[in-house]
Amino acid sequence: MQCFRKKEFQPRQLIQKMNVHLVATTDDPISNLDYHKLLKNEEDKNGFKVLPTFRPDKVMDIMNTDFLTYMEQLGGSFRPCHWKL
Predict the structure, then answer these.
(1) How many Å separate Cα 81 from the centre of its chain?
(2) CA 67, CA 49: separation in Å to the nearest integer?
(3) 43-55 residues labelled b (16+ CB within 10 A) or e (exposed)
(4) DSSP characters for the chain?
(5) 20-34 residue pLDDT tens
(6) Higher pLDDT, 82 or 70
(7) In the chain, where are the structural domains located?
(8) Which of 47, 18, 54, 17 is CA-nearest to residue 33?
(9) pTM for the full model?
(10) 24 with 33: CB under 8 angstroms?
(11) ∠ at Cα 35 (39, 28), nearest 5°?
């Protein structure tokens, strides 16, 4: 297990070593995507892009007692995306 603590086994280094160019994550639509913003600033250094994708779990769970509250949050969080791919 000690070998996994080495720098070459950290996520970024593994992604780079495997020659990955794009990582797609599943994100809640109301997520602020702060980590994506940080990674966007490091794209050139990292050598790969990280893009969010729609995770519909909460949108589909209409039986959840918090569903209407979530829908209100979702409606208030809409903002156009101005990222260039």
Answers:
(1) 14
(2) 32
(3) eeebebbbebeee
(4) -GGGGSGGGSHHHHHHHTT--EEEEEE-TT---HHHHHHHHTHHHHTSEEEEEE--HHHH-TTSTTHHHHHHHHHHT--------
(5) 999 999 999 889 899
(6) 70
(7) 2-55
(8) 54
(9) 0.71
(10) no
(11) 130
